[in-house]
Design brief:
single chain; 667 residues; alpha+beta; Rossmann fold; Dna Ligase, domain 1; 9-stranded mixed sheet; 6-stranded mixed sheet; 17 helices; globular
Length: 667
């Protein structure tokens, strides 16, 4: 049995692959201690499967512990050690305004307060030692840090990406002087040469690791009590790592949950015969979008999360605050807005009957007939139509609209926000969304898919099997992964085969050793630029080290595709090499699982609103089995999500259980 559990803002999802079928379950997320909701979801899945936890061979987990802590600015009391004269690099940053035309807007403050920043009496240059780290100076520094009583320490010294000797020496002395205090060193966390990004990433890693380590210890303890194996943890890169490594390097997991969804989406897209897809994950709190090309989710060498830079490889997932629990409100200009504030898991939308009073997207969907009181939601949630109407009616009075008009406005605004997010990862990067299929998942994704597709001019939608828990399915099928990277900073006139092959082999050995599998497959990323540029383009390659001419040609093509030109006289620089060692995840037989599912049954029709008009929509309840065809208007209440099919759309079920939606050709 293979188990995946993903923690969302409203629900915690579990998927169990057992005996050729997928068993799914949901439990409310427990914000106080997410591990409680994890075990509740696991228990529900095991009960449905009729098995005990000791049969589980692999347990993979994605969570939002590090994400939430970073966004809220929470973390351990952290000290920062930098080369003397550079202790304020985390505050100076790039000295760029947070918003160009909002002069008073500021970036979030560093996680390390000024009084906890310490200068190390040493100096490395690009070629080696400039000022040695003397034993007496290191001891005095350790004494000063100990007096500050930190819970974690970030060590970020100049040029440690190339010469880490001083960082290693300080880390060893700090471990002896302050046993039990977490220490993050920049050359181990991230190999970039950029001082600010390296310092900010290491600061995040140090501040969040004690918090994440405490959570993972509780989770591992509960898993052992339930007879489960120790969980593997999803990294932001879309690969799994051990719980121990995740606890030591929390920065690796900041986008753990969204990465699990992207991994599941890529797997489902390939299985459904649509390897090029725009993935759209709408849950209870937020909406995550990404691009899948040729069956792989796009990656980025780093990005900002909560306006803080993370210089680590991660899946290129863009998030907006538009989910089923997003609250609708009126801004000072009188415009209807949705999100980013959410009703969350507690109390949740008004229609959940748990004390929520503000109108949400879920309340609007209930009033429009896309959800029904009689069916309820996954996780055992029963819906209260009267409570939803009261919540929406209050907002409708403020806007001088009828409740039904207000509900339709809420859904349209939320869908426009999600379409905007998809434009960020497509149109703004030179990608035409119309040549992709829209892969919609999450509990609410298939409900809004046709509206979002219409906004982007897309004509095909894929609703994958287990769409409401696809992130948990992604955890089941994800690869184990370890990355190793190094800034090399080589210009083309010094770029011979040995200059590439030597660091590549060292990184490959590090990655495979870290993964614990000498036979793991390897793929590489080379970040290149023209001399004088301050940004790089990533060139991916499978197998061994690349040839210099091969890299230059690939870079020229990528530059022309992205920016419309290539410079034949420009000097190309190789900035960073990253090698990834990976062991593929299991390959599930989705077709067999779909064929064994109990067919959906037709329920009574329901009045639903589409484009301001009321229609009598057919209602189906149950799993999608191959061969079923359906024309809109219809509502399909799948086991873990709800699919809305407006007039003018038709659906058919693929052999894997994915529902393929196509728009009718105009007459």
């Amino acid at each position: 049995m293979l188990l995946g559990v993903d923690v969302g803002g409203t629900f915690t999802d579990a998927v169990l692959a057992v005996d050729g079928r997928l068993v799914t379950a949901k439990a409310p997320t427990t914000p106080g201690d997410q591990s409680e909701g994890v075990i509740a979801a696991v228990d529900a899945a095991l009960e449905r499967a009729g098995h005990s936890g000791d049969r589980v061979e692999r347990f993979a987990h994605g969570m939002t512990v590090a994400t939430n802590a970073l966004l809220e600015g929470r973390g351990a009391r952290t000290a920062l050690v930098a080369t003397e004269g550079f202790t304020d690099v985390v505050e100076l940053g790039r000295q760029a305004r947070a918003h160009l035309y909002r002069l008073c807007a500021a970036r979030p403050p560093p996680l390390v307060a000024p009084e906890l920043r310490f200068g190390a009496p040493e100096r490395m240059g690009p070629e080696g030692v400039v000022r040695p780290l003397e034993a007496s100076g290191a001891d005095a520094l350790c004494d000063a840090i100990a007096a500050a009583e930190p819970e974690a320490i970030a060590v970020v010294l100049l040029h440690a990406y190339r010469h880490p000797e001083h960082e290693r020496a300080l880390a060893d002395r700090l471990a002896e002087r302050l046993p039990g205090v977490h220490v993050s060193v920049s050359h181990d966390v991230v190999g970039t040469f950029r001082e600010y990004e390296r310092a900010a990433t290491t600061e995040i890693d140090a501040a969040l690791s004690p918090l994440l380590g405490g959570y993972l210890r509780r989770l591992v303890g509960r898993a052992v009590e339930a007879g489960l194996p120790e969980p593997a943890i999803m990294q932001s890169s879309g690969g799994l790592t051990s719980a121990g490594r995740a606890a030591d390097h929390a920065a690796l997991t900041v986008l753990s949950g969204p990465a699990a969804g992207a991994a599941g989406a890529a797997y489902a897209a390939v299985a459904a015969g649509e390897p090029d897809a725009l993935c759209f994950d709408m849950g209870g709190t937020s909406c995550d979008v990404c691009v899948v090309d040729s069956g792989r989710a796009r990656e980025t060498p780093g990005r900002e999360v909560g306006e803080r830079p993370l210089a680590l490889p991660m899946l290129d997932v863009h998030t907006v605050g538009a989910g089923g629990g997003s609250i609708a409100w009126v801004d000072p200009g009188g415009a209807l807005r949705v999100g980013p504030r959410s009703a969350g898991a507690e109390p949740g939308p008004a229609c959940y009957g748990r004390g929520g009073e503000e109108p949400t997207v879920t309340d609007a969907n209930l009033l429009l007939g896309y959800l029904g009181e009689e069916g309820g939601l996954a996780g055992g949630v029963r819906l209260d139509g009267a409570a939803a109407e009261r919540a929406v009616a209050g907002l409708a009075r403020e806007l001088r609209l009828a409740p039904a008009e207000c509900a339709e406005g809420i859904v349209r605004v939320a869908s426009a926000e999600m379409a905007r997010a998809l434009r960020v990862v497509t149109v703004e990067r030179g990608v035409d969304p119309r040549r992709y299929a829209l892969l919609a998942f999450g509990g609410a994704g298939p409900m809004h898919a046709t509206t979002v597709a219409a906004e982007l001019g897309m004509a095909r939608i894929v609703c994958p099997p287990a769409s409401g828990v696809l992130a948990a399915l992604g955890l089941v099928v994800s690869e184990r992964r370890r990355d190793a990277q190094r800034s090399v900073l080589l210009a083309a006139d010094h770029l011979d085969q040995a200059a590439i092959a030597d660091p590549w082999r060292e990184l490959a050995e590090l990655a495979r050793a870290g993964l614990g599998d000498p036979g793991a497959s390897l793929r590489s990323v080379y970040e290149l630029r023209y001399r004088g540029q301050a940004f790089e383009l990533a060139i991916e390659r499978e197998g061994g080290p690349a040839e210099p001419a091969e890299l230059e040609d690939a870079f020229a093509r990528a530059h022309e595709e992205r920016y419309g030109y290539a410079d034949p006289d420009g000097v190309v620089e190789l900035v960073t090499i990253r090698v990834t060692a990976a062991v593929p995840g299991p390959d599930l037989d989705l077709a067999a699982s779909a064929a064994g599912a109990e067919p959906a049954r037709t329920a009574a029709s329901r009045a639903a609103t589409f484009d301001g008009e009321r229609h009598d929509a057919a209602v189906l309840r149950g799993a999608a089995t191959p061969g079923v065809e359906l024309a809109g208007p219809a509502v399909w209440e799948l086991p873990d999500s709800t699919l809305v099919l407006p007039p003018g759309w038709r659906a058919r079920v693929h052999e894997t259980g994915a529902v393929i939606l196509d728009r009718d050709e105009p007459a």
